[in-house]
Amino acid sequence: MLTEREDNLEVVRLSTEYYKRGRNFYYSRVISPLTKLSKGWGPFEDEVSNVGVREAMESLINLSECADGIYKVVTCNESQDWETGIVDDYDLMLVEYVDQT
Question: How far is the C-alpha of 94 from the C-alpha of 25, rounded, in Å?
Answer without folding.
Answer: 27
